[in-house]
């Protein structure tokens, strides 16, 4: 595959049509099991499903109510200053307010990449099949499980099934190309593992930011078709894009804001509503209204979704860089919590001689992003972290916005994740590192921090599920 600066730089907007120890799970193993809920005080009911319109929808439907976005948990004192909001003459939008960030405009990145290509630093990795396995995923046919179950669907997309019954899809992109065009741009070298309609239940779709490898118009419209009640959770400024797509089920959030969610069992058609109620600081999710007597054996599902910082940027065109907010997210339901890193850098690394360790003594002074330690101290620990490990070379160009595996392990430690899975690799050639380099470097980085190579921070096949 030919790599050009255009492929990595192109952020042209695709105008939406106005419709707008982890347990390894075999792909052939049975996924259906009934067990006790992780919260012993809450009964864990059995849910039945039936097929409708090419997708599987719970015969027991759930109505979602949500509090308005607000700081419901501990936040750093400086969060009130909104330093990441551009103000005054700087223009509109957002910025990374840390010394660990180095701003590079579109022109600057283009010139740096052109120079890297001329010098041979920006080459073309070998994507000759087979690269690594892609298996057909299996999803639980009911909402009942005693484990937190996570399935990698390629690049940054994970489908997470919570013991509470909650089902969350993170950064889904189910197209051949991550591009505004179907005929050009980075093309998959590993196949799409399944159809969106094959995912049985989607309660929430969490989008970290607007780049094309994380937000896809065709995918969003297919989710809206297959799972019309799914609620999209996005960063500030991005709700407008969804409304232009004809999608009203969208909530936008700022860093350090939370929403409390209750999915209550109902009869008849499931409807989404956003309540105007605001929970008090450090309060638990609100208690739902009692269901009808025929549904009293089915427990409501409660969750808290938290929008948290990341070090990145956003754009859909060459002219809207930073206009919408990039984020990481934490989703907690009952006793299980997941931190989704989305796409993020950790520190800005200068150009160093080839073969030089940019974590060597001469580079120890480089600032690191403080947000991850704040996330860990104020919101951690997390049962599972979904942490990016790929798309990082050349480092002097991409390190501010993309972590390499050594950065990723530091992020893992800073955020206090108990376990982690590597994301943001294995799908499209976006930068020139070898296809299998990210997981290989991850093992070296884990050894560097005296962490076992397996069983703590792992990678898996596309389509594979792990239980935690």
From TrEMBL:
GO terms for biological process: N-acylethanolamine metabolic process; N-acylphosphatidylethanolamine metabolic process. It comes from the Eukaryota. Residues 26-45, 273-282 have a biased composition (Low complexity). Pfam families: Lactamase_B_2 (PF12706). GO terms for cellular component: cytoplasm. GO terms for molecular function: N-acylphosphatidylethanolamine-specific phospholipase D activity. Residues 1-47, 268-296 are annotated as: Disordered. Residues 167-425 form the Metallo-beta-lactamase domain. Residues 11-24 have a biased composition (Basic residues). PANTHER family: N-ACYL-PHOSPHATIDYLETHANOLAMINE-HYDROLYZING PHOSPHOLIPASE D (PTHR15032). This is Metallo-beta-lactamase domain-containing protein.
């Amino acid at each position: 595959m030919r790599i050009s600066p255009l492929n990595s730089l192109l952020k042209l907007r695709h105008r939406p049509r106005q419709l707008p120890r982890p347990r390894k799970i075999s792909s052939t193993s049975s996924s259906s099991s009934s067990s006790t809920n992780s919260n012993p005080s809450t009964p864990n009911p059995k849910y039945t499903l039936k097929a409708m319109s090419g997708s599987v929808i719970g015969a027991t439907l759930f109505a979602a109510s949500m509090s308005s976005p607000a700081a419901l948990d501990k936040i750093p004192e400086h969060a009130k200053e909104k330093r990441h909001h551009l103000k005054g003459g700087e223009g509109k939008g957002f910025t990374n307010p840390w010394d660990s960030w180095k701003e590079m405009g579109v022109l600057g990145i283009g010139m740096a990449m052109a120079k890297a290509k001329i010098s041979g630093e920006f080459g073309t990795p070998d994507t000759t099949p087979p690269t690594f396995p892609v298996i057909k995923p299996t999803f639980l046919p009911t909402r009942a499980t005693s484990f937190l179950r996570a399935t990698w669907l390629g690049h940054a997309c994970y489908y997470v099934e919570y013991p509470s019954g909650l089902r969350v899809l993170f950064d889904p992109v189910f197209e051949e190309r991550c591009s505004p065009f179907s005929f050009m741009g980075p093309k998959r070298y590993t196949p799409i593992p399944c159809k969106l309609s094959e995912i049985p239940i989607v309660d929430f779709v969490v989008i970290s930011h607007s780049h094309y490898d994380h937000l896809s118009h065709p995918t969003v419209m297919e989710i809206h078709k297959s799972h019309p009640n799914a609620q999209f959770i996005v960063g500030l400024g991005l709700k407008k894009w969804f409304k232009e797509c004809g999608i009203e089920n969208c909530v936008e959030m700022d860093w350090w804001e939370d929403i409390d969610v209750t999915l209550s069992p109902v009869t008849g058609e499931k409807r989404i509503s956003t309540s105007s109620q605001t929970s008090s600081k450090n309060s638990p999710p609100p208690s739902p209204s009692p269901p009808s007597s025929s549904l009293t054996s089915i427990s409501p599902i409660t969750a808290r979704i938290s929008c948290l910082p990341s070090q990145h940027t956003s754009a859909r065109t060459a002219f809207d860089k930073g206009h919408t907010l990039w984020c990481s997210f934490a989703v907690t339901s009952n006793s299980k919590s997941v931190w989704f890193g989305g796409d993020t850098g950790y520190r800005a690394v200068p150009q160093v001689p080839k073969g030089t360790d940019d974590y060597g003594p001469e580079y120890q002074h480089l600032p690191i992003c403080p947000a991850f330690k704040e996330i860990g101290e104020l919101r951690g620990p997390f049962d599972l972290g979904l942490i990016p490990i790929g798309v990082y070379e050349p480092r002097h160009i991409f390190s501010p916005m993309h972590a390499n595996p050594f950065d990723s392990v530091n992020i893992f430690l800073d955020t206090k994740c108990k376990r982690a899975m590597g994301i943001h690799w294995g799908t499209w050639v976006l930068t020139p590192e070898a296809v299998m380099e990210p997981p290989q470097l991850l093992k070296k980085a884990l050894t560097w921090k005296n962490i076992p190579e397996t069983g703590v921070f792992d990678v898996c096949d596309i389509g594979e599920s792990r239980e935690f």
